[in-house]
Task: structure prediction
Amino acid sequence: MTTENVPAPKPVPVPDELSKPFFEGAREHRLMIQRCNQCHMFQVPGRFVCDECLGDDLAWVEASGRGTVFSFVIMHQRYNPGFAAEIPYNIATVELKEGPRLLTNLINIANDDIRVGLPVKVSFEDISQDISLPKFEPSSE
Ligand code: ZN
Result:
């Protein structure tokens, strides 16, 4: 018996104390980000203190799910066997309307058509019963 043709599994995120609200929201297809109740800055991923004012009065709120492509790369190298079948694939930094930047993948767009500044909206990919990942797709708005 050979396992040669069985695709390797992709790594799956394991939520911890700080990322749990993010992944619980994602499972319900809601993009959750942290807001500082002191200075009203938004941040993601979650942290114990605000990056802006170092306050620790932070709340999780649902983001608009809208943003623009801030930067991207096209991956041609196989760093993890779980992604081998998708090479070349994109990795993008999306700047949310609320300000924070999120590392993600763009979907429903050819790699050659990706541009910095492209308007995008969130679209969730259910990768298991417990984990959904926020990806982004082109948006006309
Ligand atoms: Zn703050």
About this structure: The longest strand covers residues 66-75. The mean pLDDT is 94. The pocket of zinc ion is lined by residues 36, 38-39, 41, 50, 52-53, 55 (CB under 6 Å). DSSP finds one helix and eight strands in the chain.
